[in-house]
Amino acid sequence: MNLVALRRFARPLAAGMRGFSTTTVGMPETEAGEPVAGAESTLTKPPKPPTRKTAYNVFMADVLKTITLDKDELAEGSKQQVRMRKAAKQWKGMSDADKSKYVLEAQKANAQYVKDKAEYVRLYGEPVRKKKGIEKVKKLNGYNLFFQSTSQDFPDLNFTEKVAAISSLWKQLDENEKKTWNEKAKTSRVG
């Protein structure tokens, strides 16, 4: 299926799914729906996958619109921060019976989520989760390599004493030996 056909196929499907957009899928089209001659594909990353809603999410979406702020409260932080604090305090003070309205709305929203997620997976595949934090590639230098190879010679020392001992050994090496360790480290680098 080419990209234009995919766009025409996906548009009616996405129309029934909240939060889905097909504007960046496929080829640019004229107002009549025909592909623009000589245009390149505008295929980009898919839209964000649908997310689950909790009763608290539904409550916050409902209540944040209605919270008004006094002049005194504006001095406590940004408008959004103050509204969030006020709404959170209101949620904590609610009884389970009061929260049940939002629990039911969240259950309805999650039933729709299951349908939207299945359709998303069908159209775009399983969403890729981003890894938290950045994985750094360790780049060894001559001292690191020297430390790794000589640290086994001091099994009875704690880490601090081991670092001090190996550091003094490194300082005692002449420049040619240090250069050899640095060259070994350059050849053993990953990435």
Automatic annotation (TrEMBL):
<keyword id="KW-0238">DNA-binding</keyword>
<keyword id="KW-0539">Nucleus</keyword>
<dbReference type="InterPro" id="IPR050342">
    <property type="entry name" value="HMGB"/>
</dbReference>
<dbReference type="InterPro" id="IPR036910">
    <property type="entry name" value="HMG_box_dom_sf"/>
</dbReference>
<dbReference type="Pfam" id="PF09011">
    <property type="entry name" value="HMG_box_2"/>
</dbReference>
<dbReference type="GO" id="GO:0006357">
    <property type="term" value="P:regulation of transcription by RNA polymerase II"/>
</dbReference>
<protein>
    <recommendedName>
        <fullName>HMG box domain-containing protein</fullName>
    </recommendedName>
</protein>
<feature type="domain" description="HMG box">
    <location>
        <begin position="49"/>
        <end position="121"/>
    </location>
</feature>
<dbReference type="InterPro" id="IPR009071">
    <property type="entry name" value="HMG_box_dom"/>
</dbReference>
<dbReference type="GO" id="GO:0005634">
    <property type="term" value="C:nucleus"/>
</dbReference>
<feature type="DNA-binding region" description="HMG box">
    <location>
        <begin position="49"/>
        <end position="121"/>
    </location>
</feature>
<dbReference type="Pfam" id="PF00505">
    <property type="entry name" value="HMG_box"/>
</dbReference>
<feature type="region of interest" description="Disordered">
    <location>
        <begin position="24"/>
        <end position="51"/>
    </location>
</feature>
<dbReference type="GO" id="GO:0003677">
    <property type="term" value="F:DNA binding"/>
</dbReference>
